[in-house]
Amino acid sequence: MKADLLAHPAEEVAPKLLGSILTCKTPEGTVSIAITETEAYSGTADPASHAYRGQTPRNAVMFGPAGHLYVYRSHGLHWCANVVTGTEGIASAVLVRAGRVIEGEDLARKRRGEGVESARLARGPGNFCQALGITAEHNGTDLLTGTSVVLSEGEPVPAALIRVGPRVGVSKAHDWQHRFYVFGDPTVSAYRLSPRAKLSD
Question: pTM for this one?
Answer without folding.
Answer: 0.94
